[in-house]
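Shipment paperwork, digital attachment
Item: protein structure file
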Amino acid sequence: MSNKLIDLVHITKKYDDTTVLDDLNLYIRENEFLTLLGPSGCGKTTTLRIMGGFEQPDQGNVIFSGTDITSLAPNKRQLNTVFQKYALFTHMSIAENIAFGLKIKKKSRDYINDKIKYALKLVNLDGYENRTPDSLSGGQQQRIAIARAIVNEPKVLLLDEPLGALDLKLRQDMQYELIRLKNELGITFIYVTHDQEEALTMSDTIVVMNQGYIQQIGTPEDIYNEPQNAFVADFIGDSNIINALMLEDKLVEILGTCFVCVDTGFGRNKPVDVVIRPEDVELTDPASGTITGTVSHLIFKGVHYEMEVMAGGFEWLVHSTRMFPVGTEVGIRVDPFNIQIMHKPESEDEEAVMIDD
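Attachment content:
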């Protein structure tokens, strides 16, 4: 990946007595697809709005290509925003909607017409110039909003939950469209969502946020396979998160039973959180398991069976292509590499250490 394009330095933002962002530091590289992911109220949209110039931070700076743009008006920045509510002008044609920003910049008519054709082709809506927004489906309106943003040739496209109003199938189609657009345009995408699957599907880098703090930064694979704390593990996909005791390097006691793991450096007899993904729980006959239990719940999910197994006083979530009926006595085995050990946070909203390159 190439150089830093945007650098957010010590950004703090409060609304009344509520701190929405607390000394946030984050940089975004050129041509990166970076997603801000987190629950409602975690500060992700505020972060995006500060980048776009729609909000001013109480403290800190926004650096763009080495220049401080903290006080620069939104229309002076080389960024364009696509909102969840498409904000198309209903009294204008599609062509007029797309041309709006270019007319303000006093571009020539030929230049504008070329750009309209180019943008519509890019979002697979050739020939829609004379249609009106209310004659289009939600997915088509979203594409027009994106076309309107990209004709201004921004270096960065900011997308605030742009697929939130679409149905599941259309949303999945648009995810692939956005990846294609990003690759064709060669610009930086900064994307806000609370949808974990969306983030895992599209991103080069995911920034997981909670309560105004960055919890973890990493590739989708890092975030899913190596969560740094229980919040990240719980928020990204399904997880079994269990209180445990690290007896010594590579040996952890889970629910009163010793499991071999691969983690080191946690000390001896230290309370820890253990994360085990449901697809990493192997069900066996009782004699072959490290711990035994009883299947208490079963759902067929198409690709796999989702089961709950009561073992050691804990309800384990299990995804397996093998089906074990409710009431079956089973053993549970977990490969040592699939047992993820994490430090327990010292306080409820303790900030996780931000990882660097």
